[in-house]
Amino acid sequence: MINRLLAGAAAGVVLVSGTAAHAEPIKGAPELTHNEIYKAAKLPKVACKLDKGTSSASTRKYITKLIGCLNTAWKPAIKEFEPVEVKFKAASDKRSCSTGMDVSGSLSEICATTVSVRLANDWIKAKNDLEVFTSIVRTWSAVVTGQTAIGEAWWALENGADESIMNEHNRRYYLQIDCFAGVSAKSVGRVVKDWKPVIDVEDFWKNRFHGKTTNRLSWSKKGYESGRPGACNTWTAASSKVA
Fold this sequence. Notes:
The protein has helices at 2-7, 30-33, 56-74, 121-124, 130-147, 150-156, 163-187, 196-199, 213-226; strands at residues 86-88, 107-111, 114-118. The chain is mainly alpha-helical and 243 residues long. The chain has a 3-stranded mixed sheet with strand order 1-3-2, with helices on one face.
């Protein structure tokens, strides 16, 4: 289980080489192109009434409830699904486990087998929940890629030390993260009419592999509108769709 989650949590780490597949289009990596998750039914609607408030306690309660809702939403879709817990870091602990960087603001990420959250005033005092909701569902997408072996297969992709191929592999992964986040938002009843503010929410580290704005919008909308993980197969998409 630890490896399955860690593979999906490799934020900020650039791939150099591997042994699994040839690129453009992706071949020889069925865990990516023909993963069982793509056959899953539309995720169920989960009643998830969320109220962030502007205190540390209310924000913790919000995040804990959202993680619980996501566990419920994705359980039917992932074979041998293992529920994930959230752990809150001390405010003084600024170190990201996935990048090794110190982060002054709030962050959520996968650390070992849990969703790790550091709360700071940027999330606590915010009058709306856009940033915290977006961060949590993006992090949850790495739970999905970790528990379905997508993350591990992505990590193992062969790129022949070709930077353009490596970059495309990484964009395919992170655009899939966006798409799974859209699926999650749909399942927990989040109403999203404009995806631009959502993708404008920056991660705690600047990710140059997110892809073009038009493609991020497209994959986020695909996941949301379908509510099905199968809409998120970025690995068989044309290169122009993952630029």
